Amino acid sequence: MNRITANAYAKINLSLDITGIREDGYHLIKTVMQSISLHDVLEFEKIDEKGVFITCDKEGIPTDEKNVVYKAALKLFDISDKEITKGVKINIKKNIPSAAGLGGGSADAAATLVALNELYELGYKRKELMKIGERVGADVPFCVCGGTALCEGIGEKITPLIPLINFHAVLLKPDAQSHTDAAYKRFDKMHIHTVFRHDKILDSIAQGSIRKLGRNMFNVLEFITSRDVIDDAKNALMKSNSFGSMMTGSGSCVFGLYKRKSVAEKAYKELKNKFAFSSLVEPKPYGVLLDE
Asked: Which residues are catalytic?
């Protein structure tokens, strides 16, 4: 095998609380994450020249060592006991917007670990790849496994949940970017103390109740985000009969949940041209899908 293609699926946070901070500066979180159908496509090809060579169809995406895909590939090659004599060419087709809270970079890194493990026949199990992913980025372990999961620690402690399969979501991203590091720094300065309870979120998922889930979703980082940035999107989604709308991750993308596809499609058609980015999505039970 000399080539392999991977779909790297985005995620949304159905809840997000910050529970502390480690001595090394990493924030401790408690969040429920869900993989969705919006995805990037990564093509991997073995080449004779040793090294990692990245191309991307989207301007502004780094193609050198600054790209988390590059970091993931090097990390996997460095850790492997197997001698790797060839290099790899990676082409990234971006569909997930950057700085949106959708985990696009982490999804691409996860796809890189899974695909290169297969391409080079390294023999790592999925849990081992998740462990390697911890050393690349906090959301990478979840993106390796995907589905519906409760994530704790810095995101590496993952408890799979009953998969959510019965909803549709509309994503709306305002014409603004939100960077994770800056968002957490603003959170620290504001000294916010939260009392969110995840049991209601977990009960909603266990019952498969999208109505209850929409009513109980929360994201602590909304407190430190400019209301001008996200309120228009949230209000538009609520007016379109969503069961709940919320910012995902550190933003600035907002999503609304719907039970019926027809209602979600109607909302999407009405709102898609009013924001910088929009998408109609559904849940996925995995984070990476390979197509050899």
From this structure: 11, 139
Q: Same domain for 219 and 89?
A: no
97 and 274 in contact (C-beta within 8 Å)? no
- 38-62 b/e (C-beta count within 10 Å ≥ 16 → b): bbbbbbbbbeeeeebbbebeeeebe
Total domain count, the chain: 2
Question: How many other CB atoms sit within 10 Å of the CB of residue 127?
Answer: 11
What's the CATH code of the domain at 11? 3.30.230.10
Strand partners of residue 290: 6
Shared domain check, 271 and 182:
yes
Give per-residue pLDDT as tens, 128-167: 999 999 999 999 999 999 999 999 999 999 999 999 999 9
Q: Give yes or no for residue 89 having a pLDDT over 70.
A: yes
CATH number of the domain where residue 241 is located: 3.30.70.890
pTM of the predicted structure, to 2 decimals: 0.94
For 28, the domain range is 3-162
User: Which tokens in the block code for residue 3?
Assistant: 């080539």
φ, ψ of residue 135 to 5 degrees: the values are -85, 0
CA distances, 201 to each of 93, 97, 116, 283 (Å): 34, 27, 35, 16
